[in-house]
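Progress note, sequence design subtask.
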């Protein structure tokens, strides 16, 4: 899901930056060309791009389609993320543990309900089974498993009687994705964890921050797209409504109920 969200973010960002960078066109470009480009450039503070209702409607359809795709990803992803977060929190005090010295995890940044035992982690990372064997012996009930990716279910199955929270923390330190990872990358990280278990804390924090940044960027770009959709919609179907000039106050004065009087 994160990979799909990143693709959407990249696509929208390229579009936004591609149009915005036209403002830096060199002087050698003919004036007529620059003028033509300026008409299509995205300037959120310039309402001239909405001067023609037909153009505004076309712009609305374009941005609405893109926003629907990104919004659909967000709507589908956020409930799953919240459910996964709750499941991790429920692992507090659950399952077997070797106890002893704690690893010193940054529980808030790592999204963990409590610190984990160093001995529990060492038991997991010192598993002699390679990650590729974990994939081969693990469940083959998904597309990614059949393509040779290491899933958490296979990692869990290869580490029986281990602390559930420690298992989740180690696996999440492999990748920003919570479900799958390239077994070769996972093996490299496992080998490094054997040398120094404290690396897990840094790797997990890094992956969590990458995930939060991706979500924040997606929300920011969705907000920009929704704002553009709203402007295009209002200038396309009720351009003379006085509320367009002082939105969102216009929703109250003169009031959204006056929009039908200006509908075109």
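Output:
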């Amino acid at each position: 899901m994160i990979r799909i969200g990143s693709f959407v973010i990249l696509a929208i960002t390229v579009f936004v930056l591609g149009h915005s960078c036209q403002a830096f066109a060199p002087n050698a470009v003919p004036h007529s060309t620059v003028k033509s480009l300026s008409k299509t450039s995205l300037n959120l503070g310039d309402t001239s791009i909405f001067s023609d209702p037909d153009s505004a409607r076309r712009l609305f359809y374009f941005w609405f389609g893109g926003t629907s795709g990104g919004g659909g990803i967000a709507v589908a992803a956020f409930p799953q993320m919240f459910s996964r977060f709750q499941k991790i929190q429920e692992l507090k005090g659950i399952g077997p543990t070797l106890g002893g010295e704690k690893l010193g995890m940054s529980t808030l940044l790592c999204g963990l309900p409590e610190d984990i035992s160093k001995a529990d982690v060492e038991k997991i990372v010192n598993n002699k089974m390679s990650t590729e064997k974990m994939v081969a012996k693990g469940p083959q009930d998904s597309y990614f498993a059949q393509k040779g990716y290491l899933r958490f279910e296979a990692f869990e199955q290869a580490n029986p009687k281990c602390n559930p929270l420690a298992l989740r923390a180690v696996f999440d330190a492999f990748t920003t994705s919570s479900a799958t990872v390239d077994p070769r990358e996972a093996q490299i990280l496992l080998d490094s964890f054997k040398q120094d278990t404290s690396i897990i804390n840094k790797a997990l924090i890094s992956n969590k921050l990458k995930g939060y940044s991706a979500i924040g960027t997606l929300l920011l770009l969705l907000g920009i797209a929704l704002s553009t959709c709203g402007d295009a919609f209002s200038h396309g179907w009720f351009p003379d409504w006085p509320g367009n000039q002082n939105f969102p106050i216009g929703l109250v004065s003169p009031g959204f109920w006056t929009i039908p009087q200006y509908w075109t």
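Residues 1-45 have pLDDT under 50 and may be disordered. Work on this subtask will continue into the next period as scheduled.
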